[in-house]
Amino acid sequence: MALRFLLFLCCSASFAQQPPAATAKGSVEGQVVSASGEPVRKAQVTLRSTDQRNGGAYLVTTDTGGMFAFPDVDPGSYRASAERAGFVRGEYGARSGGTVQVDSGQKVTGVLIRLTPQAVITGRVVDEDGDPVAGASVSVMRYSYARGRRQLVSAGGNMSDDQGEYRIHSLPPGRYYVSANWRPAMWGRGTQVEETFAPTYYPNAADITAAAPLAATAGSVLRGVDIHLARKRTVTVSGKVVHPAGRPLARGAFVYAAREGTGTWAARASGTVQPDGTFFIRGVLPGSYILVAEAREDTRRLTARQPVAVPPDGAEGVVLALAARGAVSGRVRIDGPGERPLAGVAVYLEPHDDSPAAEALSARVKADGSFTIENIAPEPYTVSVSGMPEGCYLASVRFGNEDALANGLDLTRGAAAPVEIVLSPAAGSVDVAVLDSRQQPAAGAAVVAVPEEPARRDSLQWYHSGTTDQSGRVTLKNLAPGEYRLYAWEDVEAYVWMDAEMRRPFAARAQSLSVRENGRESAQLAVIPAGAGE
Questions:
Q1: What is the pLDDT of residue 225?
Q2: Looking at the domain that runs over 236-323, which CATH code has it been given?
């Protein structure tokens, strides 16, 4: 008996000392093709880990058939992208950001990355006499949905050469606005500029509202996009920045004038603030501006914001009264019995307008559900919540007696009341299968659930999106009860599907979806091919 016991102990020790089984490497194979399906050779393909702690990446080049292979890949989740001169950078799962999952010893095949031929815009920047303007900053912009809001964002830029010529490449298909701006080489503090070129939008507009959009298709070269700059007399805006306590300002305070309706920093002029609060902003073109002053005191931020109409002879005596940015406190709770951890939940405040003084802010929720967001400008905001526990959706947001979920959070008068946020654990979900034109699984497709309720269409939090896996499937979770329309795109820019005009050509390809509390729905969609609707 004793011998048998000793043998048992020895065997147990032997098993305990066995090292864990080695993780077998996997492999990833695929192809890079153009929008027309032709193989793209010599494309540089990158496979990068989604685990920030790992940060591993692999790099290969496609062969003559556009094929690539990563033979020894550590198990994990990856993003695959490809680049080639003459094309816009492409990703697996298109611009929706699909991932490639590699399990231990798995051979992943069929990873298809599409590259779109770049569009190019070229032209000249000239003055009133047709002479070239060298060193002009030329910007190409387009409307996009950054952070879920329609905004004018930069798509590229360049400087005009000694002949006034410019060329901007690597543009994906879309509608663009082109502007040019010029500043003296010695522009800076104390520079006296009596006249300068006014920022101009193609073909000859002072702001974006009167500019002509350019439609760029895949592989197109738009030539002759010439911009004529006109010299205009500049003026000075001066005044005083006032501290809320009436004392001198801390070093580092600054002030700037942002031109309304331009959508670019190129139309902004700045100045420094003296300790007694006096300021001068030189080189300002007459027009409508928002004047913004900023100062810091330890951890506090002080802000002033005021619209100013600058006449042809300049503006004097402008008073900017600083006010300390406020703070909003509140609590997040999950409705119903039982405890659910709130780790990873964050509350976001997004400004309603593109105010120069406002910015998106957020705060992590503590274990007890409380949160505080500091340094908030007095502006109206939209409240959203990220990182909600699985199965939850945003049910209500109360700010005192106000319904801040429906009407937004108005902080123009400060934040006297706490913000109460309630999450419901009765969210629905939908399992989606996407097929291509051959009735095969469409991997890497972007699936989007668009809310039917008009009041929800302006806020990103009511949209739900995901990317299909290698089997063409994806599950959208945490859907609030209501009516939706489901779409599946082979290639689509992130968040652009919030634009109703963009979705309109694909209405017949969408599928209606009704989500109930705690419901689990299913749907099958036909993928919308890349380039459809252009």
A1: 97
A2: 2.60.40.1120
